């Protein structure tokens, strides 16, 4: 697995979403990572050095896997671009039907029924 730069990763992610519009899925995982082995992290911690953590992002459609690493400096720009891509390609989701609590409560009052039984 090769780490891509941010812009090529976003382009490949867009292509994955476009290919999977009719059938298929795309899974995206985010994980905190220092991109160093456990032994190196332990040595750095013992020496009192600060460990620079990054966000490791992987995306797969079952056949192809891409990944990138996002540091703290690029996080805001990446998050905005990533959100734009997600919003553009979530067209297959259905709207959730919500029940308005106020309207249902008013309808119950008009009918004379209440949810709580009356105390005698």
UniProtKB/TrEMBL annotation:
Heterodimer with SRP9; binds RNA as heterodimer. Component of a signal recognition particle (SRP) complex that consists of a 7SL RNA molecule of 300 nucleotides and six protein subunits: SRP72, SRP68, SRP54, SRP19, SRP14 and SRP9. GO terms for cellular component: signal recognition particle, endoplasmic reticulum targeting. The keyword Transmembrane does not apply. GO terms for biological process: SRP-dependent cotranslational protein targeting to membrane. It comes from the Eukaryota. Keywords: Cytoplasm, Ribonucleoprotein, RNA-binding, Signal recognition particle. GO terms for molecular function: 7S RNA binding; endoplasmic reticulum signal peptide binding. The keyword Lipid metabolism does not apply. Component of the signal recognition particle (SRP) complex, a ribonucleoprotein complex that mediates the cotranslational targeting of secretory and membrane proteins to the endoplasmic reticulum (ER). SRP9 together with SRP14 and the Alu portion of the SRP RNA, constitutes the elongation arrest domain of SRP. The complex of SRP9 and SRP14 is required for SRP RNA binding. Residues 103-114 have a biased composition (Basic and acidic residues). Gene3D superfamilies: Signal recognition particle alu RNA binding heterodimer, srp9/1 (3.30.720.10). Residues 92-102 have a biased composition (Basic residues). It comes from Arachis hypogaea (Peanut). It holds the Pfam family SRP14. It is found in: Cytoplasm. This is Signal recognition particle 14 kDa protein. Residues 92-120 are annotated as: Disordered. SUPFAM superfamilies: Signal recognition particle alu RNA binding heterodimer, SRP9/14. Its main location: cytoplasm. Belongs to the SRP14 family.
């Amino acid at each position: 697995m090769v780490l891509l730069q941010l812009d090529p990763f976003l382009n490949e992610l867009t292509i994955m979403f476009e290919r999977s519009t009719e059938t298929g899925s795309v899974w995206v995982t985010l994980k905190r990572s220092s991109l160093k082995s456990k032994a190196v992290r332990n040595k750095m911690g013992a020496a009192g050095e600060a460990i620079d953590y990054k966000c490791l992002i992987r995306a797969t459609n079952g056949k192809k896997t891409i990944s990138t690493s996002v540091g703290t400096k690029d996080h805001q720009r990446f998050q905005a671009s990533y959100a734009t891509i997600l919003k553009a390609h979530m067209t297959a989701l259905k709207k959730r039907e919500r029940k308005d609590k106020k309207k249902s409560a008013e309808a119950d009052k008009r009918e004379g029924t209440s949810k709580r039984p009356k105390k005698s």
